[in-house]
């Protein structure tokens, strides 16, 4: 820093202000200091800055799996929001959400000096594993069913399922069949519960849901089973990937979508508009989920205390060509 100050003809304090992005330096001086930094190959020492400010400008992310579309989109949104706030992220996937693995992940992140942690593991899984989160570091969980123990952010799973089911009923379908995600997933259970409640409020028959595993292949198997029943005219599928498998099964079975059977998905993945026919689905705003996660976490970091709050991001129905009134 002293070398930069001598070359630029300024004080070390001015160099410090420029390197920290402070605004109380005029443009000409700032440009001269940056030119001296470039000429000398100077880079601010982040470790020294962290010791002085108590901030590492880093956020840890613990996640159970990277194989699901939702987790990947959420992680991408968190990384983008972190970068916009001037933070880096350290990703730590774990094989199983056990007390040992989650605690071990916290310890490893603490060693790498992060300011806060986002957990993309559903709270009921943490509860089942009897995981107690260490105190002393801000934490936000991506899951709207975490109760009052944590700060949480999630999309409105129940509202999305209600919108999907009500849309199909409004077209004149007497009931709506459901291809659900795995019972181990909170999001899946929340969507299934809302689907069932919506049918019950409408006085419609509630069929037994078929449980898949989020994959297109499990949707295909469920679709073959549903296609064999001529009474099936409307299907709400727990995610777009399974919906793709359902569409294939219906096509192969000679059931025309949407003339014979209407299909609604969930997630609004980028490829949903390219399905045949283009898929009516529920849009989850993963970018907003990520933004709110970082906003809530930085608020806790700034306040130097662990907060408890819930932020639910609305879901919306996206109408495309895979739904229509039932056949006459």
Distance linking N and C termini = 80 Å
Sheet with the most strands: spatial strand order: 2-1-3-4-5-11
What is the fold-level CATH name, i.e. the topology of the largest domain?
A: Rossmann fold
- What level of helicity do the residues show? 40-55%
For the largest beta-sheet, the strand count, sense and barrel status come to: 6 strands, parallel
Oligomer: single chain
Number of domains: 3
Helical run tally: 12
Could you name the CATH homologous superfamily of the largest domain?
Response regulator
CATH architecture descriptor text of the largest domain: 3-Layer(aba) Sandwich
Unreliable spans are none
Whole-number radius of gyration? 25 Å
Class computed from helices, strands and strand pairing: alpha/beta
Mean pLDDT score, rounded? 87
Strand content: 5-15%
Any idea of the CATH class of the largest domain? Alpha Beta
Outline: elongated
Count the strands?
12
Order of helices and strands: HHHHEHEHEHEEHEHEHEHEEHEE
């Amino acid at each position: 820093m002293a070398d930069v100050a001598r070359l630029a003809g300024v004080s070390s304090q001015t160099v410090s202000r420029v390197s920290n992005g402070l605004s109380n330096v005029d443009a000409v001086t700032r440009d001269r200091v940056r030119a001296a930094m470039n000429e000398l190959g100077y880079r601010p020492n982040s470790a020294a800055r962290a010791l002085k400010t108590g901030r590492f400008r880093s956020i840890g992310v613990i996640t159970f799996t990277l194989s699901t579309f939702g987790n990947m989109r959420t992680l991408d949104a968190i990384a983008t929001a972190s970068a916009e706030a001037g933070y880096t992220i350290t990703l730590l996937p774990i094989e199983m959400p056990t007390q040992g693995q989650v605690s071990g992940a916290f310890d490893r992140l603490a060693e790498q000096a992060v300011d806060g942690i986002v957990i993309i593991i559903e709270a009921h899984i943490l509860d089942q594993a009897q995981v107690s989160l260490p105190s002393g570091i801000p934490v936000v969980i991506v899951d709207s069913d975490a109760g009052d123990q944590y700060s949480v952010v999630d999309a409105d799973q129940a509202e999305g399922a209600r919108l999907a089911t009500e849309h199909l009923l409004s077209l004149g379908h007497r009931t709506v069949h459901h291809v659900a995600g795995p019972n181990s997933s909170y999001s899946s259970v929340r969507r299934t519960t809302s689907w069932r409640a919506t049918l019950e409020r409408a006085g419609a028959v509630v069929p037994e849901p078929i449980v898949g595993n989020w994959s297109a292949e499990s949707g295909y198997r469920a679709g073959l089973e549903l296609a064999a029943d001529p009474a099936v005219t409307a299907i709400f599928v727990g995610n777009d990937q399974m919906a793709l498998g359902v569409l294939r099964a219906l096509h192969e079975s000679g059931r025309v979508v949407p003339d014979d059977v209407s299909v609604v998905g969930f997630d609004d993945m980028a490829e949903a508009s390219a399905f045949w026919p283009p898929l009516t689905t529920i849009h989850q705003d993963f970018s907003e989920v990520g933004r709110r996660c970082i906003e809530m976490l930085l608020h806790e970091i700034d306040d130097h205390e662990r907060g408890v709050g819930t932020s639910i991001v609305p879901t919306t129905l996206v109408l495309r060509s895979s739904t229509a009134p039932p056949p006459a």
